[in-house]
Amino acid sequence: MKWRISPNLNLEDIKKTKCLLLGAGTLGSYVARNLLGWGVNKVTFVDNGSVSFSNPVRQPLFNFKDCLGGGAKKALRAAEALKEIYPGVDSTGHVLSVPMAGHPVVDEDKAKAEFEVLKKLVEEHDAIFLLMDTRESRWLPTLLGKANGKIVLNAALGFDTFVVMRHGSLTTAGSKDGLGCYFCNDVVAPGNSTKAQTLDQQCTVTRPGIAAIASALLVELFVSIIQHPQGADAPATTSPDEDNIKSPHPLGIVPHQIRGYLSRFNNVIVTGKDYSCCSACSGRILDLYLQDGWDFVKRAMNEKSYIEEVSGLKEVQRLADAVAEGIGFSDSDDADDDELVEI
User: Is 181 annotated as catalytic?
Assistant: First the structure.
């Protein structure tokens, strides 16, 4: 592959990139297998779940025996499974709950300890993969990844849709090339999305093939970033046109987002700018985190409105409400005018 098809491919850069996978379920299993295929040597899993009887058919790192006795811990078993596939891989697992925005702290000592472990893991790795079930579980890793200047990649699934994306880098933030994160299009801060939901609503229900498709695209996007001369600062490709395909990049284009629609068997390349009021990656949020550390994270967990206030989202909501009220008054005035009869 390197010698004949793509002589400029730098396999050593791929091999030495240390990857942190947050989530060792369906997405985590497929991503890990694809990373192994590219020769990545360091893979670390973070997950707090256990293997259940419904998992092995969808999560290729597990088998039926892993479900027995209450189920093996996913992070630990996934790390072992990678070594069984290729003994030379440096694979470890951490049983850990990621602190989530909008989920109040119950045991502060435990939550703070988990935050410190996660923070250290992010600092020790080069690329962070967000492969969890809920939106709010991605908030803190997004913040930590941006604050530490890491490559952050994200995959999220619907029943027959998916989004695969890279987050904007710290060095291009606020510039014309600054790319958004998973939360940059939101007008509200992430909250507890599992509250008052039934068990089936809390679990991502998808067409079985969509996780494999999204995971493969995510890993290929990761490798394209590693191979690009600008790395994580690579500008987003807006369309796969002829000029981009002929670029000197050994693996072709490097998009910001790929949105897939399996019902139409169609993928769309999307580019989104970073948002100055983003609840996860904006300058205000980064500054507060760097200043207050755990105390800032704790407030974000306990008080949903706190993130909205300090990021500027609350002011955006107020302005939107004011505009809506103004339009309402204008419409009513027009209606009154229509009812007047000229004498």
Answer: no
The amino acid present at 148, given as its one-letter code, is N
Q: Is the model's pLDDT at 343 over the cut of 90?
A: no
If one counts every other C-beta atom within 10 angstroms of the C-beta of residue 90, the result is 13
Compute the distance between CA of residue 289 and CA of residue 311 in angstroms, rounded to an integer. 12
pLDDT at 198 over 60: no
Beta strands 266-270 and 257-261, pairing class: antiparallel
List 203, 277, 278, 281, catalytic entry: 203
What DSSP designation does 152 have? E
Q: Which helix (H) or strand (E) element contains residue 337?
A: helix 313-339
Contact (CB, 8 A) for 281 and 274:
yes
Residue 72, token pair as written in the block: 């093996």
Contact 189, 302 (CB under 8 A): no
**What's the pLDDT at 331?**
54
Q: Of the given ranges (155-159, 298-302, 312-316, 322-326), which has the lowest mean pLDDT? A: 322-326
Residue in the block written with tokens 């974000």? 300
The one-letter code for the residue type at 135 is R
What would the pLDDT profile of 63-77 be if each residue is shown by its tens digit?
A: 999 999 999 999 999
CATH for the stretch 11-276: 3.40.50.720
Write down the domain spans for the chain.
11-276
Residue 22 gets which letter from DSSP? E
Q: What is the DSSP letter of 168?
A: P
Distance (Å) of CA 163 to CA 1, 84, 130: 29, 31, 12
CA proximity to 45, closest of 16, 17, 18, 76: 76
Rg (CA), the chain: 22
Query: Looking at residue 17, what is its pLDDT?
Result: 98
Q: Phi, psi at residue 297, to the nearest 5°?
A: -60, -40
Q: 0.85 exceeded by the pTM?
A: yes
State the Cα–Cα distance between residues 156 and 130, nearest whole angstrom.
Answer: 8
